[in-house]
Design goal:
Layout (H helix, E strand, L loop, with lengths): L2 H5 L11 E3 L2 E3 L6 E6 L4 E7 L3 H17 L6 H17 L1 H12 L3 H21 L7 E2 L5 E9 L2 E5 L5 H15 L2 E5 L6 H12 L7 E3 L4 H9 L6 E5 L2 H12 L4 E5 L5 E4 L5 H13 L11 E5 L3 H13 L18 H16 L4 E3 L3 E2 L9 E2 L2 E3 L7 H4 L6 E7 L2 H9 L3 E2 L1 E5 L3 H10 L4 E4 L14 E2 L2 E2 L4 H6 L2 E9 L2
Helix pairs in contact: 2-8, 3-5, 3-6, 3-7, 4-5, 5-6, 10-11
Length: 492
C-alpha cells in the first residue's frame, strides 16, 4: 500500500471483503455490504460484509468444533510456537497493518505503528506463557493427594472497540489462544479490517482452521447474537458502560462468563513538587493521544493551586502548537472516528459554554488544514469546573481536558475519587512516599506514577466501579480464559 497514492485518492486494494470463518474468507450469508469511512477525509474508502446471526452461528460452530477436536488438545509448546510465529508475521506486515489501522480509525500513522508493535508483543508475551500455566498442590492429610489444573474455558467471544482495533483484538486473542480457547471476534463496524487481517496472519502462522474466526457487522446484528449464543463460554467486551450492561444481561441467560473493560474519567493528579517538563509532556499525551479517544485517557487534570496558573499557561501554549491532519501524514493530532462522534464531543462543549465554562483553548469543530476535510475537533482545555459538572463526571471520549483545582494532596485525593468510574489514575510528584500513599487510596484498577500509560502487556489492566471488572494483560489476563479444576484423591 502506497501512502501517497492513497492520499491522492487512488482506490485502496488488497482488503478482505468477507468474514473469516473456519480458516478462510467467506461471503456473508445476506450478501449485504457496509461502508468503511476514512475519518481523516470523512469519505468511504472500502466495504466489508454485513454479518448476521447466521454468520455468527457458522463461526461459533467452527470454533466449537476446533476447540473440542484440535486446539484444547494441542500441546502448550506447539501453541507457543504458533503464537511466536504470529508475532513475527505481525512485525513483518507492520507497515501495511498500520496504514489500514490509520485509514479505519483515523489515528496518526506513528501511533498506529505503535499499536501494531504492541499487538506483536502481546502474542510474543503470551507465547512465552503457554507452557508455564500450571496448577498447585494442596496440603491434605496423609493418604490423600490434592491438586489443581487450569483448563481453557472453551469458545470465547471478543467484542472489539473502534479506538484501538488491533491492540484490543490482540490483547484478548493472544491470552485466549495461549490458554487453549478458540475465538469468535466481532470488530467494531467502524474499524473491521485489522481484525480480519490478523486472523489471516494467525492462519499463516499455523493456527488450525476454526480456532480464530472474525464476523463483521453491527452490534445489533452480530454482537447481540454472539453474546446470547448458548455455545459461547465467555464474552470479553470493551466499550461503553451502557453497552456493557446490555452484554451482562445477555450473557446472564446462559450463565456465560464476562470480562468488561468499560469507560473512564481518569484523573491526572499534579502536585506542586512535580517535575515540570515530565509532567507537561505526560498531561499532554494523556489526553490528546488518539484525539482523546481512549478509555484510560487522563481527561481530568487535578492540579494543586500553587502551580495552577503557570502550569496551565504552558500547557495551553503547547496544546496550540499541535499539528492537525490526516493520519497518513503522521501529524501530532488526528481526527475523531465518525461524524456521529464528532457531534457528540461538540455537544459537550456547547452545553459547557451555556453553563458559563471558560474554554482556555480549542472548543470547536475543525478540519484537515490541507484538504478542508475530515472529522476533527480542536484540542480543548476547559478551566476549573465543579465536581458535579458534566465535563467532570461524564466520559466525553474526545480531546477535552477538564481542570479541577486542589488545595493540597488530601483534597486532590478527594477529587480524584469523586467519580463513578475507576479505570486508571495518574500521579505526578517527586515525593515517592506521597505518590505511593495516593496510589494506595485512589480507587482505580491501575495507577501511573510520573509517566502516563507506563507499563505494557506485562501489567494487568481493568477497572473498578462503572469501569468494569475482570483483568486483561499480564498473567491475570491469561487466567481470565481459564477455569480451575480441583482434584482430591484418597490414595491410601
Amino acid at each position: 500500500m502506497n501512502i501517497q497514492d492513497i492520499l491522492a485518492g487512488k482506490p485502496v486494494t488488497g482488503l478482505p471483503m468477507g468474514h473469516y470463518i473456519d480458516g478462510c474468507f467467506v461471503q456473508g450469508s445476506s450478501g449485504r455490504m457496509m461502508d468503511s469511512f476514512d475519518p481523516g477525509r470523512g469519505t468511504v474508502f472500502a466495504q466489508f460484509a454485513a454479518g448476521n446471526a447466521t454468520d455468527v452461528d457458522a463461526a461459533v460452530a467452527s470454533a466449537r468444533e476446533a476447540f473440542e477436536t484440535v486446539w484444547r488438545k494441542t500441546p502448550a509448546a506447539e501453541r507457543a510456537r504458533i503464537l511466536l510465529k504470529a508475532a513475527e508475521l505481525i512485525r513483518a506486515n507492520a507497515k501495511r497493518l498500520a496504514i489500514v489501522e490509520t485509514l479505519d480509525c483515523g489515528k496518526p500513522l506513528n501511533e498506529a505503528l505503535g499499536d501494531v508493535n504492541g499487538a506483536a508483543r502481546s502474542f510474543e508475551y503470551y507465547a512465552g506463557a503457554c507452557d508455564k500455566l500450571q496448577g498447585d498442590t494442596f496440603p491434605l492429610p496423609h493418604g490423600y493427594l490434592g491438586y489443581s489444573v487450569y483448563e481453557p474455558v472453551g469458545v470465547t467471544a471478543h467484542i472489539i472497540p473502534w479506538n484501538f482495533p488491533i491492540s484490543t483484538t490482540a490483547r484478548g486473542l493472544a491470552p485466549a489462544l495461549a490458554a487453549g480457547c478458540t475465538v469468535v471476534a466481532k470488530p467494531a463496524e467502524q474499524t473491521p479490517f485489522t481484525a480480519l487481517l490478523l486472523a489471516e496472519l494467525l492462519s499463516e502462522a499455523g493456527l488450525p482452521d476454526g480456532v480464530c474466526n472474525v464476523v463483521t457487522g453491527t452490534g445489533a446484528e452480530v454482537g447481540a447474537p454472539l453474546t446470547t449464543h448458548p455455545h459461547v463460554d465467555q464474552v470479553t467486551f470493551t466499550g461503553s458502560v451502557v453497552t456493557g450492561q446490555k452484554v451482562m444481561r445477555s450473557a446472564a441467560d446462559n450463565i456465560t462468563r464476562v470480562v468488561l473493560e468499560l469507560g473512564g474519567k481518569s484523573p491526572v493528579v499534579v502536585l506542586n513538587d512535580c517535575d515540570w517538563e515530565q509532567t507537561l509532556t505526560g498531561v499532554l499525551g494523556a489526553i490528546f493521544e488518539n484525539a482523546g479517544q481512549i478509555c484510560s485517557a487522563g481527561s481530568r487534570l487535578v492540579i494543586e493551586r500553587g502551580i495552577r496558573d503557570r502550569f496551565l499557561e504552558e500547557l495551553v501554549a503547547r496544546t496550540k502548537t499541535l499539528t492537525i491532519g490526516h493520519g497518513l501524514r503522521d501529524p501530532q493530532f488526528g481526527p475523531v472516528n465518525s461524524q456521529e462522534h464528532l457531534s457528540k464531543v461538540a455537544g459537550f462543549i456547547d452545553r459547557a459554554r451555556e453553563r458559563g465554562a471558560e474554554i482556555l483553548t480549542g472548543g470547536a469543530i475543525t478540519a484537515d488544514p490541507e484538504t478542508g476535510q475530515g472529522w476533527f475537533y480542536e484540542p480543548t482545555i476547559v478551566a476549573d469546573r465543579p465536581c458535579d459538572d458534566e465535563l467532570v463526571q461524564e466520559e466525553i471520549f474526545g480531546p477535552v481536558l477538564t481542570v479541577q483545582v486542589a488545595e493540597d494532596a488530601a483534597h486532590a485525593l478527594e477529587l480524584a475519587n469523586d467519580s463513578k468510574y475507576g479505570l486508571v489514575a495518574g500521579i505526578y510528584t517527586q515525593d515517592i512516599s506521597n505518590a505511593l500513599s495516593l496510589a494506595s487510596e485512589i480507587d482505580a484498577g491501575q495507577i501511573y506514577i510520573n509517566e502516563y500509560f507506563a507499563g505494557g502487556i506485562e501489567v494487568p489492566f481493568g477497572g473498578n466501579k462503572f469501569s468494569g471488572f475482570g483483568r486483561e494483560k499480564g498473567l491475570e489476563g491469561l487466567k481470565s480464559y481459564c477455569k480451575v479444576k480441583s482434584v482430591a484423591a484418597r490414595i491410601g
